[in-house]
Amino acid sequence: MAVSLPDEELEVLSHAFSGCGGLGVDENSLVDILKRWKQPEQRSLFRKSSSKFFRPDGHPHHYLFERWDDALIRTLKFEFARFKELVVLWTMHPWERDARFAHYVLHKAYPFTILVELGCTRSSEELLGARRAYQALYHHSLEEDVSIHVKQDYTNLLLGIVSAYRYEGPSWSEERAKLEAKVLGEAIRNPNAVKPVENQEVIRILTTRSKLQLRATFEHYKDIYGKSIDEDVGDDLCLQETVLCLKSPPTYFSKVINEALRDDVSKSTKEALTRVIVTRADADMKDIKDEYQRLYGVELENMISKGTHGNYRDALLSLVARQE
To answer: Are the C-beta atoms of 120 and 160 separated by less than 8 Å?
Structure first.
């Protein structure tokens, strides 16, 4: 069935993004649009219908996505509260959105774990699209910028994560899972060895194997050593986040959301709430809600209602409820 957009809804969004400082914008109508536009195709049609705000990515004959106009983004960022920022991210092409998140990490002192999140929780095609969008937006490859801006012991792991194109089919090897569980164990549990995050075999396994294969490997790790691999990696945050994102994205996202809802955290930590809810609303939000309740004994909707307010709260709740 063909997707169409009512003229009045296009008008509401167009006025909201017109750079008028929010004057006359009906935020309740924006929330209603978030509730009604449940198909990604609706947002795609909005981008294609709104040349005032979006333009091709620079390849006029075979462009890959509709990108936000950079000058408009610079104007809007000075006047947007969290609610309108959420709406901007929600309308943005997913590839562009992830590319901009990656750029924030590398140029604006955002937590590097966002790169791990992008590399380990997106599909191979989604990650490839984000890399293409990064080149179109910034005229550098994502891998090039990671190698330039990240000078830590986890640089090679991050490079492998963001450049991965994993197999996503149903096949996996029991024998390989057992073998590589032992390889990981020897690297992680040997105090005299090179740091696991710098170990080339650890990097190879975590950045090239399919997620299905890795989950089997992690199960065998626990069978062999009596502890889960995420317990064994210790205080190496990059390795912790990598393993958790690959092992159970809903657990990872639940923890990020819970941290973002605390009062005593940094601005970048709080901003993760918008990032996670917007990017996972059409993906695995139901799994995240179930896992959040399992971990914390309370419904995610209740925590969002307590920790946020106004139209920002209503917008978050509408996205959280999309898969019901």
So the answer is: no
Distance CA 124, CA 214 (A): 15
Contacts of 45 (CB under 8 A, 6+ apart): 3, 4, 5
How far apart, in whole angstroms, are the C-alpha atoms of residue 273 and residue 194?
36
The superfamily in CATH containing domain 174-247 is: Annexin (1.10.220.10)
Q: How far is CA 174 from CA 171, 179, 218, 306, in A?
A: 10, 9, 12, 46
Angle between helices 40-48 and 82-91 (to 10 degrees): 90
Nearest one of 31, 236, 218 to 153, comparing CA atoms: 236
| Residue-wise pLDDT tens digits, 297-315 | 999 999 999 999 999 999 9
Average pLDDT over residues 165-184: 98
> 32 to each of 35, 86, 91, 150, 318, how far by Cα in Å?
5, 14, 14, 41, 9
Residue spans per domain, the chain: 1-92, 174-247, 250-320
Q: Tell which residue, 173, 167, 172, 184, has the closest CA to residue 223.
A: 184
